[in-house]
Specification:
Distance between the termini: 93 Å
Strand content: 15-25%
Order of helices and strands: HHHEHEHEHEEEHHEHEHEEHHEEH
Structural class: alpha/beta
Largest sheet: 12 strands, mixed
Low-confidence stretches: 1-29
Length: 342
């Protein structure tokens, strides 16, 4: 009896031990076991991002809760500052980051400097191929479509322009359309869809409508909501936030809809390359992408619906690839000339 009792206690203790260890098991974690073990041995990952600090902190916390044996060093800044930091660190021989999430226009600069390396995440099979680099240098994390917003108190739904051409109707002339003074991606996207000549011709006609040209998506949407102008070209999520709150704002897609991507990149000289890959896999996973919905952002996975789904469903889109920014300086100059910003 005593022997049986001791045997029972031994089996019970072993079972408890295995149960407690389960969250750290490669199989339980749902990731490549070899990658997980290699990441575990590295013990940390450095993440540079342009996502707002409150949101990026939640992503980091979620990752660390799932993989408590990996510490995340988070750096958050604007796109220009993030790129400058990476470049300055590299000039000084410091390679401190593993994963970066920034604007699309950072990709080429980092590629040219050989500061990023290809990584094909297994999660990319759930992402439409127009948002995944064929060579693996970048994968879209979330997106921002340019759409036409309108003040529902000032414009009836049936009167809202439904095409780019209808936006040129004389009734919308004279400070009735808000345009961002730095929406270079909007021009780049239309040029990708139509070709440069047709796009430039159209934008000149749009400029002839005498739009209100000023900076900032959030600020401009607030002004449209206050009745400063009836129409606004801005990011869909920014407008949808007000629509969802019941405020007098709504939007329609003008097809094809230019879509900006916020890409993820892996450092070529990452100090923790395996932990970096694991982090990329996490933010592209179903669990990681669901977090974006809560942030009122648009996820890129096909099996995760935005809230509401129409944010990225039901319209023809043209995704701006980071490679499109090869002529960014010329696009900026052209945009500024068209809208008289020079």
């Amino acid at each position: 009896m005593r022997y049986a009792y001791k045997l029972f206690l031994g089996l019970f203790s072993a079972t408890v031990f295995l149960f407690c260890q389960a969250p750290f098991s490669p199989t339980q974690a749902g990731s490549n076991p070899k990658l997980l073990e290699a990441a575990k041995s590295e013990g940390s990952v450095s993440y540079y991002t342009t996502m707002t600090l409150s949101q990026s902190k939640k992503v980091v916390d979620k990752f660390q809760a799932k993989y408590p044996f990996i510490k995340v060093d988070l750096f958050r800044s604007g796109g220009d500052e993030l790129l400058n930091r990476i470049q300055n660190e590299a000039r000084g021989g410091l390679y401190a980051w593993d994963v970066a999430s920034s604007r699309g226009d950072t990709v080429l600069a980092l590629m040219d400097a050989k500061l990023i390396t290809p990584y094909h995440s297994p999660e990319s099979k759930f992402i439409s191929q127009d948002m995944v680099d064929d060579e693996g240098y970048w994968t879209a994390y979330y997106v921002n479509p340019f759409v036409l917003g309108y003040n529902t108190n000032l414009v009836k739904k049936e009167d809202v322009p439904k095409t780019y051409e209808q936006l040129l109707d004389p009734k919308w002339k004279g400070k009735k359309i808000s345009v961002d003074d730095s929406a270079y991606g909007f021009l780049a996207g239309v040029m990708r869809a139509w070709g440069k000549e047709k796009a430039v011709t159209y934008f000149k006609k749009l400029a002839a409508q005498e739009p209100v040209v000023m900076r900032g998506n959030t600020n401009r949407v607030q002004l449209a909501m206050a009745g400063e102008y009836p129409l606004i070209i801005a990011y869909a999520p920014t407008i949808q936030r007000e629509t969802s709150k019941g405020h007098p704002m709504d939007w329609v897609p003008l097809e094809p809809v230019p879509v900006q991507v916020n890409p993820l990149m892996l450092a070529a000289k990452a100090p923790h390359p395996n932990a970096g890959k694991l982090f990329i896999d996490f933010v592209l996973s179903k669990e990681g992408q669901k977090m974006l919905v809560g942030f009122r952002r648009i996820p890129v996975r096909e099996d995760i619906e935005p809230d509401p789904p129409r944010l990225f469903r039901g319209y023809k889109r043209i995704v701006e690839h980071p490679e499109d920014y090869k002529e960014l300086a010329q696009t900026i100059k052209l945009y500024q000339e068209i809208f008289g910003l020079r």
